[in-house]
Structures are given as C-alpha cells and as structure tokens.
Amino acid sequence: MATRRSASLRRLCIAVAAAAALAPALVPGLAAAAGDAGTYGLGHDLQQHSPLKQVNRATVKHLVPVWNLSLSNNYPQETQPLVIGGVMYATTTDATVALDARSGRQLWRTPVNLPQDVFAEGCCGSHNRGAAAYDGKLFRGTLDAFVVALDLKTGKELWRQQAANYKDGYSMTGAPMVAGGVLITGIAGGEYGTRGFLDGWEPATGKHLWRRYTTAAPDEPGGDTWVGDNYLRGGGATWLTGSYDPDLDLVFWGVGNGGPWNPALRNSGAQPHDNLYICSAIAIRPKTGEIAWHYQFSPNDPFDYDGTNELVLADLKVGGQMRKVILQANRNGFFYVLDRATGKPLAANPFIDRINWAKGIDLASGRPIDTELTTRIKQAPEMAQPEQIFPASFGGKNWSPMSYDPRERLAYANTLNWGYVYRTEKQEQSKGQWFIAVDFSGWVWPADGKRGFLKAIDPLTGKARWQVESDIPYMGGVLSTDGGLVFTGAQTGEFMAFDSHTGKKLWQFQTGSGIVGIPTTWELNGRQYITVASGIGGAYSLFAADPRLNNVPTGGSLWTFALIDGK
Fold first, then answer.
1. Which residues are catalytic?
2. Do the domain assignments include residue 208?
3. Residue 129 domain-assigned?
4. What is the dihedral of CA 509, 515, 517, 519, to 10 degrees?
5. What is the CA radius of gyration of the chain?
C-alpha cells in the first residue's frame, strides 16, 4: 500500500512540475525559449535546419513514437507545427489546435467555420501550411481568405479580417509571418483570373496597413510589361511564406505564375512581355510594402513554373568572397543563388536532369535563354499540336520546402522527374472559375519509373552530392539537423531519416497515412523531439492519378518521436 501511495505521489509531483513548466508558455508576450520551434521554416531564414543533435546517426535507431494525436479530419496535412515553451500549435483546414507538446494532450481547439461552397468554389486545395506567433497571439489564414488572430493561451478569437472574396477564386493556404513588427500575409488563386498581392497588418488590432499588388499597374514601375488591363487578372499569387533579413529590414517573397498560363492571351496576342512581377522574387520593406528590388526567374512564363518556392537565406562563399545570399530551387528546374541586397543572380544551374524550355540562364542579363520551342509557344494563342515540356507544371521541385545545412553548405530537397503534354488553347474568363487556357491532359513519366529524388545539392553548381530515388515522389518537406540527419516523409506513410553525408536510410516509421507536411524538431528539458503531420492529399494525389496511392488511408494526425528512454 505504501509503495502504491509513493508511486502515486511521484506521479502527482511530476504532473505538477509539468504544469508549472508549461504555464509560462501561455503568458501572452513571452518570447520563445531555446530549443523551441517558434517560426515556420525554423527561423526567418527558412533554412529548415536545426542545431539539435541528440538524435544523430548513431542514436536514430532508438527513435520511437512518444505520442500521436488525431486531427479529426481527412484533409491533406501540409502544416508545420510550432512549439513554444512546451506547447505545440498546429493548423488544419478546419481548426487550430494547441496541445501539451510532451504528452500530445489537447489543450484547446478552435474551429474554422467555413462556408460549405468554399470547397467547390474556392481555390487551390483544402489544406493549411501553418501559423505565426507574436506578442501572445497566433495568426493564421483560412480557406475563405480571412486572416485570424487567436489568443495563445485560450484559443479565443481576438480579431478577424477579410483579405479577399473566395468567390472570386482567392484563398489563403500559406503561413503568415511577422517581420519588423508587421504581420504579412500572402494569397492563393493564380489559376482563377485573380490579381496577386501581399498584405501588411497591425498584429495587435488587425488594422490593414498596406497592400502590395504583384502585377504592376500602368502607372507603376513594371507597368509597361503588361498589355492593356491584363494585369488586373494576371495571376502572381503569393501562396507560400517569405523570409526576412532584420539587418537589411527586407522581406523576400516569391511570386507565382501568370494568369492565364497561356502567355499569348496575357499579352493580347502581341509580342511577349515580361509581365512583372510574376515568377519573381521580390524584396519588400515590411513597414510599407515598398518593393526594394526584384528578380524574375521566368519572364512571361507559359508553364506554371511560379517563383513561390521558399527563398532561403544563407551566407555562402561565392568566387572566393563571403556573400549574403538567397537560395531557391525553382520549379523551372534551375537552382538560383541571388545577392540578398540587390537581387543580382550569382549562380543559376540545373538541379534536375531534363529541361527543354531553356538552354540555361544568362547571368549577365539574369534572363533565361529560351529554346526555340518556348519562343514559339509564347507567340501561339492556340497550338494545333501538343508538345512535351520538361519539367512538368509540378516543377523540378514543388512547394514542399528544402532544408539548408550551413555547415555542409548543402541543400536537401525532394525533386521531381517528369514532364507533361502541353497545348495552348483559347478560353474566356469566368469569375471564380479555373482559367489557364492550356490543355495539359497527359504526363510524361520517366521510362525507369523513378518519379522523384531526395537530393543533396551544391547550391553553386546544382549538382547532387548524393540522391535517393523513389518510384512515388516524396512530396513532403525536408528537415536537416546537426546530428547528421535528413528527415522527410513518403506519400505511402513512411517517416524516414537519412545520413546527410551519404543518403543512406537509417530509420523509418509507418505513420498510417501519407506524409505531405513539413517535419520540425524541438527540445524540452534536455530531450530532443521530432514532429511531423501525417495525412494524404495535395497536388500529386489530386492530379497524378497514381493507382499506388489508392489504398493509402486518409486521416490527419500528428506524430512526435524521441529517443527511447532518453538514449
């Protein structure tokens, strides 16, 4: 009896200590502690790299699940959870959830009340990629294009602002960010005849501070790169999260494809125009939204190559000199290194094997060297015969973020390996409807069946130090650590760890549904944890019609892992 009482007393003391440790995290305004994962991308540099190394090449074999939480829905789980002071915050399409990060016990759940027709009329898939935390508040976007602020402690809604009308084809799927004291949000909907933009908000009140449209009007710099009023429906969505350099006080944000994809219709059949700022990186001043510089990856893009992939900040030796740079593995198949202060391209090389839309990138002008095929397509409002284009509209890398290890000076990315059958056609715009004016009815799969590769890429050359092939491409994000590990997930459900030096798979665990989300890692009381969301869905499962995914169950959940017995 005494033994049982002593054991009960010990458990009570542990519970009280845990509650006391968690309590400070719920005090509004408390800064994130060491070991937290308090921002999307594990920092405003979006490196997706952690200095934690308790879980490493030698110990990863002892990695086990410590808890699993159902997210109570069947939507794709593309989120990256935040962890602040022992509390985890995760977003889904229909809810925001806070939980005890040690046990997985739900602390609060705030529903997102969506209109039923948003799934039929809204843009771009039913997913959400994450939140931002600042000054005691959690900020997120919703599928019907609202920005919402919640109290970190209770989940109570503090303010809500409408960014756009979902019936026009807009939605919000990306994580917001806070830079220079301003909450910044992007927008999705580039395939719906919309006009892209970024918004700045006052975090405390939700007051709208500024809007920066990403298709230039006639009276703005770049306005002469559009014909007539086509800029008003010219695309340029901003659907992924930007990065931030506080020393320069610049936010770097990727801008998406032109609308429609058919460039001859954007330009009214005239000679090709660049259509700024589609398919670009833009540097903006967070307090005003003013554009400081831009770099356009794919001028007058016909192929949905976007420019929205993550803009990773790094310090890299270029030509024998250390430079502050931006790294991007663009959907167009080229890996770019840009000067962070000016946007000047320092390197641009293929990181995939087959590209037929461009011969290369001219660093002097910064422009791609179009092939004859691309030149012809840009001037064809309606093609008589389809052409095979490489890479496909999915790109050489899709949205799922790569990681960058500053010690190894390597980027780790899930890359894609197929093309598509492409033909421009004429189409009239209808409000709130899919508007691309292109028929892409077929995919060109690789003969050997290898549709994707996890690659360790040298940013300056685009060449792979190693690669791991996959028949079904990996569509989740990548996490690297100082433990010499690279984590990612498979659409068939396996969460995996690879040796960052060799690419050898060292560990895996079956999560029960496909992984298309972003892994994260964090530390609490000296113990390293790794978390990933599981839940099949996303663009590949929607458009690729891969029968091998037919038996992968839906169902969203969060999995958290640590070393068994703290080994």
1. 304
2. yes
3. yes
4. 10
5. 23
